[in-house]
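Dear support,

Our group has been running a series of protein-ligand predictions, and this particular one with glutamine is the one our PI (initials K.S.) wants archived with full inputs and outputs. We had some confusion internally about which version of the output was final, so please treat the block below as the authoritative record. The input we submitted was:
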Amino acid sequence: MASKTKYIFVMGGVLSGLGKGIATASIAKLLQSKGYKVTAMKIDPYLNVDAGTMNPIEHGEVFVTKDGLECDQDIGNYERFLDQELTKDNYMTTGQVYASVIQRERNLEYEGKCVDPVPYTVEEITRRIKLLARKSQADFILIEIGGTVGEYQNSIYFEAARLMHLNNPRQVLFILLSYLPIPGKIGEMKTKPTQHAVRTLNSMGIQPDFVLGRATVPMDDSRKRKISITCNLNKQDIISAPDVEYIYDIPLNFEQDGLTKQILKKFKLRAKKQDLKEWQIFINKIKNSKQILNIGIIGKYFATGKFVLADSYISVIEAIKHAGWYQNCQVNLNWIDSDKYEKSPNELKELKQFDGIIVPGGFGKRGVEGKILAIGYARKNKIPFLGLCYGMQLATIEFARNVAGFKNANSTEINSKTPYPVIDILPEQKEKIKNKDYGGSMRLGDYPCVLKAKTKVQQVYKTDEIIERHRHRYEFNNKYRQELENKGLIFSGTSPDGKLVEMIELPNHPFFVACQFHPEFKSRPIHPHPLFKEFIKSCQK
Ligand code: GLN
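Confirmed final output from the archive:
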């Protein structure tokens, strides 16, 4: 086992969707605040190698790391809480595990043995966890196992966790996040489902060191006593995890209930410092932010309802909130389905009520014309506008059609026969699509971007070169650069060789900026992203 690293497995019981990712991120944050080096890993028990090939209904947001991995949104939660950039090593899927084992089998590395999932996939899981320990040199690694205990899919991960504990009990802890329902008719918080979850975990050879009790309200003493007696735990190791108004409150709640103190005690460690002051100030700022801003997010949404939708744009939502709080305001997000403007352009007038408009990333044809209409409305009516990725491509199309007079200008993603393909696919991407080489084949992760002198974005970033994260296949088509520039579109950011357009803006407008990258991935609660900050500022005016 890598020398000094301690491993904390976070597992789920009773039901999913309880906020295991946020709980994991919060515990990581707390240990970091005690002066330790901390990182976190997410395990997704599906056969996809990464999250890039799943649609948003299946998966919610696809987060992108700096080294170009398409992964689960929890990696975004970890980055936001830890204020740290994570990498491919922080994410594991069953697809990756099996691909490695099968590759090794093909290479005869198992020397003629029969390759069973146990122990070989379990060994591969442990290898990946230890690799992260070596590379990160972290004192603590939080490892979140996706799904809930007792599922067939994730049992190899519980087995790996059990064995890591067996081999080094002093370096491994288990935390079970469970659910305590309060059934309407009974009106009392029930611990039985949690008791069952602990039993299931026990049957896999694992005794949790902590139970975090998720419920609508805080857990009372008698509930803690009950779980303590029935599940073989000390009362102080049962931590209350009630619903909160702001997710960023959760670390403070855990701290108050003594979780960090107990974790350190079990590892026989001491806090090296107490560093939650800045976080506390940030929470106070959130709670004292009173001005209300109304932002319209024009997207293509799904019939499955608002729950999925909010998940698909989680980093955008958080980035807007961070910038809002920084400017002392609460942001009301209004989800607008662009389809409706296509059907009745008359409804565009409603956009007037918003302090600002965002067109986030997206793919495919549906809803595109409505988004273009909304962008045109924001341009003409001087409503602050921020375009993200697809948002930049569609803003370019709007300008080409309605200012430069390129009738039916389009992206070849939408219409391959457009007379003015102002957005087009890169030649190397054409090759990949021809070979059906879709997985991980977009322009992904960090790329540098040079900002043009005296532009809005250069003022905003206060620097000449930035690094931002990408996830797209199409690009601005340079054939139209000169003509659009002559008509007043400013190409304010490009790749260092000048070949790829990364940012555009319009003069004589309070704020009309769009970027080919995804700035939302780099926004942090205490350090909001400059583009979002400036956008919110102009919304306030
Ligand atoms: N569909 C566009 C492309 O692939 C934009 C992608 C996005 O918004 N992430 O280039």
